[in-house]
Amino acid sequence: MDVSEAVARRISVRAFLERPVPGEIIHRVIAEAARAPSGGNLQPWHIDIVAGEAMARFRAMMKDVLAEHPRGEPEREYSVYPPDLTPPYSDRRFDVGETMYATMGIVREDKKARGAWFRRNADFFGAPMALFCTVDRQMGPPQWSDLGMYLQTVMLLLQAEGVSTCAQEYWSAYPRAVGKFLGTPPERMLFTGIAIGYADPDHPANTHRAHRAALADFATFHGV
Ligand SMILES: Cc1cc2nc3c(=O)[nH]c(=O)nc-3n(C[C@H](O)[C@H](O)[C@H](O)COP(=O)(O)O)c2cc1C
């Protein structure tokens, strides 16, 4: 698979098969992705992978955590979105939610079904493996963008192996539980999780294709 094909094929998969991802694949991909560029070559990414017996323990822990904090822990380490998100960004966020739920036949008024679907984040949408990315608290926006480069490289390399992913900032609502489980030192904070596994080809969620803005809405070509 060439890079263009991997880019085109990668989507956020939200229903996975139980089939485990071979440890050899994730070891290789996590190492290879470290060729991702970073400003000053800081390589600010720290990665934890959870699978197998550790995933079983993680899921058991989350049962208790969710019972106590169904809507996230009281202290969040960062806001996922700006508090007063404005158009066109707010429209795009609305659109992806609406089209996603429509794909699964969940109407806007059905808050219960929407809530139940959202909570599937806590189960990694059934994925057998997860990645967590943490970053040293001294890092700022430029280094956080480096994390994105690393993580997209991981997702594309996994895609090339036929392995699907869904990035999950959802986990930023559970920094304490995740940090305790992973043993993250206090100087580091959790950025995101990523669900990793083989896509369930029969699940309607995986037929969803998120829209993209028109080229002219985000790119200006000067002299080309
Ligand atoms: C950093 C990051 C965090 C995300 N967090 C979540 C999440 O918590 N739950 C979820 O279902 N999707 C999450 N997504 C997936 C986005 O909704 C998705 O990438 C976007 O709608 C575009 O769709 P696509 O990935 O299928 O192209 C996240 C994506 C990124 C890059």
UniProtKB/TrEMBL annotation:
CDD domains per the UniProt record, alphabetical: PnbA_NfnB-like
Which residue ranges does the record assign to the Nitroreductase domain? 8-198
The protein's GO terms of the molecular function aspect are: oxidoreductase activity
Keyword Oxidoreductase in the entry? The reply is yes
- Keywords assigned: Flavoprotein, FMN, Oxidoreductase
Name of the featured protein: Nitroreductase family protein
